[in-house]
Amino acid sequence: MFNLTSNLEEFKNKAKDFGFEQNIDELLKLDLTFFEQYDKFVLINIKDYNEEPNNLLLLSKENTLVFSSTRMNEKQLELYKNVLKKEYGESTSITLLILKQVLRNYALEFEKIRIEIHSVENKLNFNSVEKVGRKLRKLTDRFEDILDLMIKLGERNIKEFNTGLIKYDYDVLTAETRYRMERSRSYIYHVSSLRNKVDIQSTAELNKTITRLTVIMTFLTIFGIVVAVPGTIGAVFGIPALSDAYFAPHPRTLVIVLIISTIIITIFGWIYWKRLKLKSE
Q: Is the Cβ–Cβ distance between 150 and 100 less than 8 Å?
């Protein structure tokens, strides 16, 4: 008997009828896709991108209990009407349909991330690249987890999920999952290249900033030297003595000397600046 519910408490109550005594709340806290095999039933949890991220399946020969926000219609079940009549056909078909729906949701999430990546490319920003990179890595992990689950389900002798009943569909779904996983991985490399571009841009901006600071410091040094020349002369010879001995009778000479010395120092500073080949931009 197949029972699909989005009510967790209802699922817990029915699970007790199966003889399932594990703490379901603790199992749902695990952020990974997994399955456990027991004597009379199999427990599978597949992580999703729906509002309710868990697809919890409790499978046995007679009953298939599913906790999920995924909806199934008659057309979907009609595709496997012949399989449903066979032993373990119900649990096998329902699990396959859940896997298909989850993979479809993964594909939709990938398209959202791909669009976001192209948007980030137009305006590179470290935080944006890191954000989309984390989303993509998480999705890739999800693809890897579900593929690993499908491989294990296919290789192990699990009566509740008899891949022999749905061999063609299962092989196609496995191949599609592998393809989407590889595509997701390829975009990880793409995001990595965007991160490198951001690093290069950041380094270039840092170099420009350092260059501007160097130019400013050079200018301030030259200006400081110009300002310090008269004071240095006065400190060596004494300002009153120089004033009385040389400049008191010739104030114009003092002004001319200061102007000429300033011009000479400025010229030497300008030549030094040019030899450094510094640019403000």
A: no
Dist. CA 47–CA 145, nearest whole Å:
9
Tell the burial category of 90 from Cβ atoms under 10 Å away from its Cβ (0-12, 13-18, 19+): buried
Which helix (H) or strand (E) segment holds residue 3: the answer is strand 2-5
For residue 147, which of 93, 188, 183, 108 has the smallest C-alpha distance? 183
Coil/strand/helix, residue 278: coil
Tens of pLDDT, residues 123-150: 888 888 899 999 999 999 999 999 999 9
Query: Residues 100, 72: contact at Cβ < 8 Å?
Result: no
> How far is it, in rounded angstroms, from Cα 82 to Cα 169?
14
CA–CA dist 32, 145 (Å, integer): 7
Rounded to whole angstroms, the Cα distance separating 159 from 260 reads 101
d(CA 13, CA 6): 13
CB 23 within 8 A of CB 44: no
Contact between 39 and 137 (Cβ < 8 Å): no
Q: Could you give the domains of the chain?
A: 2-202 (1.20.58), 205-276 (no CATH)
> pLDDT, tens digit, for every residue of 42-70?
899 999 988 788 899 999 888 888 988 88
